[in-house]
Amino acid sequence: MSSLKETLFKKIEEHRPRTTKLLKDHSDVKLGEVTIGQAIGGARGVRCLVTDISYLDPMEGIRFRGKTIPETFEALPKIPGSDYPSVESFWYFLLTGDVPNKKQTDEVVADFKARRQVPQYVIDVLRAMPRDTHPMTLFSAAILAMQRESVFVRRYNEGMSRMDQWDPMYEDATNLLAKLPSIGAYIYRMKYKADTHVGTNMDLDWGGDFAHQMGIAKPYDDVSRMYFILHSDHESGNVSAHTTHLVASALSDAYYSLSAGINGLAGPLHGLANQEVLRWTMNFLQTLGKDDYTEEDVKQALWDTLNSGQVVPGYGHAVLRKTDPRYTAQREFCLKHLPDFPLFKLISTIYKVTPPILQEQGKAKNPWPNVDAQSGVIQWYYGVTEWDFYTVMFGIGRAIGVLANITWDRALGYPIERPKSLTTAMLEDAAKK
Ligand SMILES: CC(C)(COP(=O)(O)OP(=O)(O)OC[C@H]1O[C@@H](n2cnc3c(N)ncnc32)[C@H](O)[C@@H]1OP(=O)(O)O)[C@@H](O)C(=O)NCCC(=O)NCCS
User: Fold this and answer.
1) Residue among 305, 311, 350 to mutate when testing ligand 1 (max atoms within 8 A of CB)
2) In the predicted model, is pLDDT for residue 373 greater than 80?
């Protein structure tokens, strides 16, 4: 058994009595009440999911296993010559809550390499689909096509104990995760680089090999590591995380579950917002019609967007009530690597003028930027101008968090999810009382 799997098993055994005790002795303790507004309004703020992998504080932003983003980057071992940790060390950290040492990290890097090869039939599936298919559809289809590989399904059919379900879920999760950068890069080059491909480089880590297969030089390997870690997890209620968890709760395997989560990420109010930001910003530049725009010009163009009934993409959040620290982390990268890039300057001006405008408009509960407001600029700078592809990279990152979560879901035996629905007449009755 690998050191990661051994540590994970130890953590699972330590954790199980906590969940059992809560269920046995405290099942009736109330965590809140549900209002009509919440029932109609997308269950905002209803406390009914449990995860120990990340927690989103509205004012502070995300913490992975208790650590803020800067603390996470600081704590994890770095790839030599890189400013960022390897994604493999982050996977170890998310799964176990422990910061791995170099030896433990190297072991995960080697394990991922051993599982990296994408089956030829997945490539065949991608190539058989019309070339104008959206990259997210291709990505989701590639994941789903591999479902036949599921160790979980095989073990389930053999009659495994419920206590053992985490193990094949972990195997499926790792097998799947290891292949995602190659699948993503293949889709990118098939669609946008005249179907020319760069093979995997076994000397490189997961993030580094993605940059290599995309065909983009340093420091894009660091962009990839940073991007994948930042997009990994945002607690459990967001659409991609919740969907993956929900589908897995029916004991669907990791392939079915992740593919479903990726489909949720493809919505413009969720992951697709990062492509929306770039599309909108480019239109915005056209509307401004000049390079020497003033802050007043930007303000006017923003009002035009709002007055035409559109949202400002990259701003607002269902939970956050301050600037997303994932935005800040990417902004810091831009300040170091591309401070004079005109698109970054425009994004910075938008950052300066948008929050007061959204406040003045008085609709958005959170006028501050989210992760998507900044990520496309970095991609654009390094030559990834095909914004349709941006959400695939978000999806590769998001897979890390949701796959860690469904491994723990099986470890703790979380049951099939089944909230209760009411009719509108029942709500009206409740309102009268
Ligand atoms: C993220 C988002 C979907 C959250 O939705 P939410 O939780 O319903 O947000 P709120 O409760 O603040 O919405 C209240 C109102 O403000 C509006 N609003 C929210 N964000 C807005 C924005 N960026 N620009 C303009 N209006 C916005 C909403 O459309 C809503 O209007 P309505 O009452 O007419 O329906 C929303 O802020 C949004 O659409 N943002 C732009 C897309 C985006 O960046 N998505 C990525 C999220 S990580």
Assistant:
1) 311
2) yes
